[in-house]
From TrEMBL:
Catalytic activity: a beta-D-galactosyl-(1->4)-N-acetyl-beta-D-glucosaminyl derivative + UDP-N-acetyl-alpha-D-glucosamine = an N-acetyl-beta-D-glucosaminyl-(1->3)-beta-D-galactosyl-(1->4)-N-acetyl-beta-D-glucosaminyl derivative + UDP + H(+)
GO CC aspect terms: Golgi membrane
Membrane topology: Single-pass type II membrane protein
UniProt KW keywords: Glycoprotein, Glycosyltransferase, Golgi apparatus, Manganese, Membrane, Signal-anchor, Transferase, Transmembrane, Transmembrane helix
Organism (species): Betta splendens (Siamese fighting fish)
InterPro entries: Glyco_trans_31
Enzyme Commission no: 2.4.1.-
A GO molecular-function annotation: N-acetyllactosaminide beta-1,3-N-acetylglucosaminyltransferase activity
One Pfam family it belongs to: Galactosyl_T
GO biological process, one term: poly-N-acetyllactosamine biosynthetic process
Name by which UniProt lists this protein: Hexosyltransferase
Classification of source organism: Eukaryota, Metazoa, Chordata, Craniata, Vertebrata
Encoding gene, per UniProt annotation: b3gnt2a
Cofactor(s) the protein requires to work: Mn(2+)
């Protein structure tokens, strides 16, 4: 039987009154407990953020300071006066001026190799002018950008790559662009003057990127940072990047085949290579990768061997931003792992990357190269011999 309209209105008014009374009782109870010192929300007497403990190693201390600067949740009431003195930045106002405070902050600085000293004194500088740029190299919005680390004298390696796995254009119905990343070679490193030849090469092939910094082993990290900056400005539309040395062989066809099957979601965090985990710095001064305790302490994050790795353009843009918050480290592949960790990511291991080479008995086995993505290291002559094994359909590897 339908309820009369007058009764319905009366019921609604009664319900509203009961709700109003309940709200008043709740407020009254809360106020009375606050006045009586009973149960209430307690504000912590200690700050959630505590002052960092000073590391004994120079790089770690500098990174602690950088982390503080970029920390978005540090107590806004904390003034710089309250900071420990060692976190105050006493370096030069211009980051590209030599940091003369460094020798006094590293106990064994004077016993380190000269190249290491140079890196430490100039590690804050990230702004180096370009000598040669190719701003139109990505005009066709490449599916795959091949970014190859090279040195000025390595003309034969670059030419072999252009004729084989690094040939720009269309491959497997996908557009491919290639750039070679170079600094400059100095007379003190016992290199002849090759600028004229390099200028001719750049004009002929339009694939050379060169910055005005000294191209040394410890400056490979700088090359990484400068490339990411260049990419963000001149090639942000490239979907994927293969970053590698100029002495690796890459199966570009297989790379494209792998990437063609990736979803857009998978591509966001895509980074694969020959991953090294649970590694730490070498302490033997005779080794190429020597890092003293006075400079760095702790374990390395998981990282992909610098001989070559594959990642998405979307991730490259995020790595560019993350690199601004990670202090330069003298080993470039470890540094890239640090930037990935800053993003909360880690590289994914793929068995197709062989940055430590393959067994000697397989070096001349054509079908091996069909199944792999990248192999280190190969001479220009070997690249020219291997490439037909990859692209010619006559080879039966069933």
């Amino acid at each position: 039987m339908p309820v009369p309209r007058r009764k319905t209105k009366a019921l609604c008014m009664m319900l509203s009154f009961n709700i109003f009374v309940c709200v008043l009782v709740g407020i009254s109870w809360t106020l009375s407990h606050d006045r009586s010192g009973g149960d209430k929300v307690r504000i912590p007497s200690q700050r959630f953020w505590s002052k960092p403990v000073q590391s004994k190693s120079f790089w770690n201390r500098e990174q602690q300071r950088l982390d503080f600067i970029h920390n978005p949740i540090v107590n806004p009431g904390l003034s710089l006066v309250e900071l420990p003195h060692w976190m105050n930045d006493s370096g030069p106002a211009d980051p590209c001026q030599p940091d003369h405070r460094v020798p006094a902050q590293i106990a064994d600085y004077n016993s380190l190799p000269r190249r290491f000293q140079d890196f430490l004194v100039h590690m804050r500088c990230r702004l180096y002018p370009m000598r040669i740029n190719q701003p139109g190299v990505c005009a066709e919005q490449p599916f795959l950008l091949l970014a190859v680390k090279s040195l000025m004298p390595h003309f034969d390696r670059r030419q072999a790559i252009r004729q084989t796995w690094g040939r720009a254009g269309v491959l497997a119905n996908r557009s491919v662009a290639t750039v070679f990343l170079l600094g400059h070679t100095a007379a003190e490193d016992h290199f002849p003057d090759l600028l004229g030849m390099l200028g001719h090469e750049a004009a002929l092939h339009k694939d050379i990127l060169q910055w005005d910094y000294r191209d040394t082993f410890f400056n490979l990290t700088l090359k990484e940072v400068l490339f990411l900056d260049w990419f963000s400005k001149h090639c942000p539309q490239a979907q994927y990047i293969l970053k590698g040395d100029d002495d690796v062989f890459v199966n570009t066809l297989r790379i494209i085949g792998l990437l063609d099957g990736l979803s857009e979601l998978r591509a966001q965090d895509f980074f694969i290579g020959d991953v090294i985990s649970n590694a730490g710095p070498h302490r033997d001064p005779k080794l190429k990768y020597f890092i003293p305790e006075s400079v760095f302490e702790g374990q390395y994050p998981a990282y992909a061997g610098g001989g070559g790795y594959l990642y998405s353009g979307a991730l490259a843009l995020r790595l560019h931003n993350a690199s601004q918050e990670v202090l330069m480290f003298p080993i470039d592949d470890v540094y890239t792992g640090m930037c990935l960790r800053k993003l909360g990511l880690a590289p994914e291991k793929h068995s197709g990357f062989r940055t430590f080479g393959i067994e000697e008995k397989y070096r001349d086995a054509p079908c091996i190269y069909r199944s792999l993505l990248l192999v280190h290291s190969r001479t220009p002559q070997e690249m020219l011999r291997i490439w037909p094994w990859v692209v010619l359909p006559e080879l039966d590897c069933q």
